[in-house]
């Protein structure tokens, strides 16, 4: 009997406490700060019910749960059953508000994944279509910034949410309320962060892409441009307001797939860039493994529903992303120890990205909006990587400049030596040969030398040929110097001199376009001096063969475009003679050394030959 009395007394006491708590609403003091968070207040949760403010007028609606703090409905227990991803529900918050007659703003991070918001009985915001089935439902990812004027000191907030797409459903943490002016500035902060990060990353991406297109030398620059493009898309897709501002009509299912695919490609891109920037620090096989792993996840994102593949995104970011950060950090440490340029900046950027990504993953795991932090992490990492690449590029340019100065100094020394050799040859050998020729001419006129006149004339002819050959070689050295500075003009002069000295007709065809394109050889360093020298020697040998075995006028065609250079010869051969033989084999070997190709055809008394160089 005594136990029954105590039980009745306890029931009466708890009922009176519940009634008191029902009538005593919590008070929100807007003067306590710019933005007051509402997730710590008691929210009523109605599962599988889409209730409007009129449905609460009778007082018959009873909540299934009191959420404090408010969160997604996944893993909530109702009627001994754990809630899953799909479903629909109504959230309600009732409280007092000390903002009578003042303009107030309410900020709601994008609910998952369609919603309808009522404030004090009035529908003020809606995104997507809330429905009780997948057929009646349309998802949309959009945060809400709602302005209203408080008619009295109460706040009755009703939010309907439905989800039949992703693996999380319901409201997320971070719902805030405050005076309109402060909340507007507070809300614009997120948009400003997104737009700043997107603009910064886009500028970095565009600069490095154009740098690679114009130079086409360092593949690390191209990989970094792709990496910056990846950052740009991630910041655009994960930003809180950017996607809804620029592409509001994009289906959330497509948005989720694209965002996940781009995120899967981030770790192998970071590793590929680091491995190419600091060659030898990350093996090619290891990079290939990460690319294969990303390809598997990309295929899953294409064919599976978002509710399945998005469930494992946190594990991918934490597992694969974390392992990538460790490997790249090890690469940066190796580069720092080797004192490679830009390695310290890259290591600092990795630390920033690692810290912000961990924090973003934590926010995501606790059902809080993390897009702005990810955007900041991507922007900072892109900035540090850009600095690292610029530092490495500047060091390479400095090294190339030093090498260029050394080569220029060597070239000047060789040029001086060449001129000295020319002078010596001209003064000594040329002078001696001239004296011999004059002596021979005198002997021919001497009556006592009439018996050996033929021998003297033959010797005189050979000396004259030697002098002409010496003059030809000296002129060829001058033509070579011109070819080093202006290749097209140089080879034109080489051919013209050869045929003029041999008193043979020649037709050298060079279009204006080829002459204009020829300037690119020096400006873009398409041919090294070694290759130019070999090509000139090949032309000299081919020209000599044509003068020796050819007949009539020779036609030389020199053509150049962006793909390469072609020098062709068309002429006639003497009867039953051709240019083939050991000379052709020598030309082919020289062509192989320079990466060029040599082809010739000889039919009847016609002959064709071509030298081709690809850029």
Rg calc: 42 Å
- Give the CA-CA distance, first to last residue: 104 Å
Report strand %.
Answer: 15-25%
Largest sheet: 7 strands, mixed
Structural class from helices and strands? alpha+beta
**Helix fraction bin:** 55-70%
Sequence stretches where pLDDT stays below 50 over 5 or more residues: 1-22
Tally of alpha and pi helices: 15
The average pLDDT value, as a whole number, equals 78
**Morphology call:** rod-shaped
Count of individual beta strands: 18
Characterize this entry briefly:
This protein is an alpha+beta fold.
Description:
With about 625 residues, the protein is of the alpha+beta class. It contains 15 helices and 18 strands. The chain has helices spanning about 1-25, 180-215, 220-240, 240-245, 250-275, 285-305, 305-310, 315-335, 345-365, 370-445, 455-485, 485-500, 510-525, 530-550, 580-595, and strands at about 25-30, 35, 45, 65, 75-80, 80, 85-95, 105-110, 115-120, 120-125, 145-150, 155-165, 175-180, 505-510, 550-560, 565-575, 595-605, 605-615. Helix 5 runs parallel beside helix 8 (about 315-335) and helix 9 (about 345-365) runs antiparallel to helix 10 (about 370-445).
Describe the SSE topology.
Elements: H1 2-23, E1 27-28, E2 36-37, E3 43-47, E4 65-67, E5 77-78, E6 81-82, E7 87-97, E8 103-108, E9 114-119, E10 122-127, E11 144-149, E12 154-163, E13 176-179, H2 180-215, H3 219-238, H4 242-246, H5 252-277, H6 284-303, H7 306-309, H8 313-337, H9 343-365, H10 371-445, H11 453-485, H12 487-501, E14 506-510, H13 512-523, H14 529-549, E15 550-560, E16 564-573, H15 582-594, E17 597-603, E18 606-614
């Amino acid at each position: 009997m005594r136990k029954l009395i105590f039980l009745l007394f306890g029931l009466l006491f708890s009922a009176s406490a519940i009634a008191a708590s029902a009538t005593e609403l919590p008070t929100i003091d807007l003067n306590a700060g710019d933005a007051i968070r509402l997730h710590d207040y008691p929210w009523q949760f109605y599962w599988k019910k889409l209730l409007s403010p009129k449905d609460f007028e009778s007082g018959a609606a009873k909540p299934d749960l009191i959420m404090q703090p408010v969160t997604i409905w996944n893993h909530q227990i109702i009627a001994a059953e754990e809630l899953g991803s799909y479903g629909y529900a109504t959230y309600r918050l009732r409280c007092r508000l000390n903002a009578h007659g003042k303009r107030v703003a309410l900020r709601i991070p994008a609910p998952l994944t369609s919603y309808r918001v009522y404030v004090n009985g009035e529908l003020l915001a809606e995104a997507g279509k809330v429905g009780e089935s997948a057929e009646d439902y349309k998802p949309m990812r959009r945060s809400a910034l709602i302005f209203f004027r408080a008619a009295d000191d109460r706040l009755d907030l009703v939010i309907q949410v439905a989800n039949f797409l992703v693996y999380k459903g319901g409201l997320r943490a971070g719902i805030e309320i405050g005076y309109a002016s402060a909340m507007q500035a507070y809300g614009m902060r997120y948009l400003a962060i997104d737009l700043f990060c997107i603009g910064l990353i886009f500028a970095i991406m565009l600069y490095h892409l154009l740098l690679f297109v114009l130079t086409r030398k360092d593949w690390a620059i191209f990989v970094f441009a792709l990496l910056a493009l990846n950052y740009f898309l991630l910041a655009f897709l994960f930003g809180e307001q950017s996607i809804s501002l620029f592409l509001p009509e994009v289906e959330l299912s497509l948005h989720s797939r694209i965002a996940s695919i781009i995120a899967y490609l981030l770790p192998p891109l970071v590793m590929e860039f680091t491995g190419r920037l600091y060659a030898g620090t990350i093996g090619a096989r290891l990079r290939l493994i990460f690319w294969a792993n990303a390809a598997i996840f990309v295929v899953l994102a294409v064919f599976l529903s978002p509710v399945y593949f998005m469930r494992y995104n946190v594990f991918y970011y934490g597992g694969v992303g974390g392992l990538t950060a460790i490997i790249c950090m090890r690469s940066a440490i190796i580069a720092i120890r080797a004192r490679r340029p830009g390695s310290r900046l890259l290591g600092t950027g990795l630390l920033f990205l690692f810290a912000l990504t961990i924090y973003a993953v934590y926010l995501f795991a606790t059902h809080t909006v993390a897009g702005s932090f990810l955007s900041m992490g991507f922007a900072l990492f892109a900035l540090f990587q850009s600095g690292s690449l610029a530092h490495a590029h500047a060091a390479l340019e400095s090294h190339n400049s030093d090498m260029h100065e050394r080569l220029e100094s060597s070239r000047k020394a060789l040029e001086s030596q060449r001129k000295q050799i020319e002078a010596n040859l001209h003064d000594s050998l040329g002078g001696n040969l001239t004296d011999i020729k004059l002596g021979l001419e005198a002997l021919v006129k001497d009556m006592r030398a009439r018996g050996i006149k033929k021998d003297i004339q033959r010797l005189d002819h050979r000396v004259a040929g030697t002098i002409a050959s010496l003059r030809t070689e000296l002129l060829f050295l001058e033509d070579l110097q011109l070819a080093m500075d202006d290749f097209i003009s140089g080879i034109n002069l080489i051919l013209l001199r050869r045929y003029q000295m041999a008193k043979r007709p020649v037709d050298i065809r060079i279009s204006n376009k080829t002459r204009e394109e020829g300037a690119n050889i020096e400006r873009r360093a398409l041919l090294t001096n070694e290759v130019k020298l070999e090509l000139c020697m090949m032309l000299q040998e081919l020209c000599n063969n044509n003068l020796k075995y050819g007949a009539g006028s020779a036609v030389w065609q020199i053509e150049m475009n962006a793909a390469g250079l072609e020098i062709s010869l068309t002429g006639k051969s003497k009867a039953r003679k051709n240019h083939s033989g050991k000379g052709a084999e020598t030309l082919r070997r020289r062509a192989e050394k320079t990466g060029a190709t040599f082809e010739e055809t000889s039919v009847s008394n016609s002959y064709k030959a071509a030298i081709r160089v690809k850029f």
